[in-house]
Amino acid sequence: MDENKNLIRIANHIQDALVKLKAEQYQEGINQFASFTSQLQELNDNRNKLGKVVSCHWYASAQCFRSRISRSINDISYLLQKNKQLLDVSENNIPKLSVLVAELKQLQADCGDMDFDKDKNTISVVTEPIELDNIFLGPFKIRLELNKLSELHKDSPYYCIALEPNPATTDESVTHPHVSNEKLCEGDGSVAIRTALEQGRLCDFFTMIKSILNTYNLDSPYISLSDWDGTPCYDCGYTMDRENCYYCSFCDRDYCEECSSYCRLCDETVCLGCGGQCPHCEELACPNCISSCVECDDICCKDCLDDGLCPNCIEERKSENEEPENQNTETEKPGDQSQPETRKPEVRIAG
Prior knowledge:
Elements (H helix, E strand, L loop, with lengths): L1 H54 L3 H32 L6 H15 L2 E4 L4 E5 L3 E3 L2 E4 L1 E6 L12 E5 L11 E3 L2 E2 L2 E2 L5 H9 L3 H12 L17 E2 L6 E2 L5 E3 L4 E3 L4 E3 L6 E3 L4 E2 L6 E2 L4 E3 L6 E3 L9 H21 L20
Antiparallel strand pairs: 1-2, 2-5, 3-4, 5-6, 7-8, 8-9, 10-11, 12-13, 14-15, 16-17, 18-19
C-alpha cells in the first residue's frame, strides 16, 4: 500500500511537469503563429512594392523585391511545417494519474530499481554495465529532470551519467561513443524519444535510451571505438594506437610517425621540434648529439666537429696558416734581386 502511495506521489510530479510542458508548447505555438503572420504581412508588402516598380519599368528594383519575396516564401514554408508540428503535439492529452502509475510499475518491472529524488524532482534508472567491442564503459544512470521537461522543444531534459567512467583517451567528456558531457546523441531516435516524453510513456522513454546506449553506430560517434584507447599526437592531434606511437624522451610527449624521426648519430627517437638538422651534413640529430663550435658558436652535429671546431672555422684556420707562407715565397723569388750599378771610370784629357 505504501509503495502504491509513493508511486501516486511520483505520478503527481510527472503530471505537473507535463502540464507545464503543454503550456510551454501552446506559448511556443503562439510565438510561431505571430512569426508566420508577420512573414505573410511582409510578403504582401513586397508584392505591392513589386507591382509599383514594374509599372514604372524599374526592373533593377523589381529584381530586388523578387528576391525578397523568394526569401519570404522559404521562411513561410519553414514556419508552416513548424506550426504543423506544434499543432500535432498539442493534440496529445495529459495522461491520467492511473496511467502514469501503471507506467511507473512497468518501468520498475522492465528496468529494475527506479530512484525518485523529491528535492531535485528527478527520476533515475541505472543500466547494466555496458561493453561495446570489448571496451568496458560501465553502467550509466539515466536521469530525467522533471523541472526541465517544459523545455523539451529547446533542450534535452535528461542526462546519461557514467557511474564507472572509462572515457576516451583523447576527450574525458566523452564517456560513450554517443555521449558527450552527459548528453546523448539520439540520432534517428530523437522524434520517438520526445514523443514518448510528451505522452508520459516513461517506460518507453527509458527503454529507448538504454537501447541506444547498448548500440554502437559507426556513422555518428563522438569518438570511434577504434580510437577509444588511442593517444593524440602532441603536434598535429592525430589519434594513434600504441603500436604507431613514438615517444620523445627530450620533451616527454607522444608523436605520430609524420611528426617524429630518429637521430642519425645515436638512433634515438626524437620529435621534429626537439631534433635539428645539421647545416653541414644536413642530417637530423637529437639534442645529445648536437653541439656548438668553440670558435663561432654555430650549431652542428658532433660528427662534423673537429677538436670543437665546425667545418667553416677549420677552413678559415687553414687559410690563415697558408697566407704567411705565400707572402714569404713571393718576396724571395730567385733572380728578382736588383744588382748594384757599376760606374765606368771617368777619362780626363789634359789640356
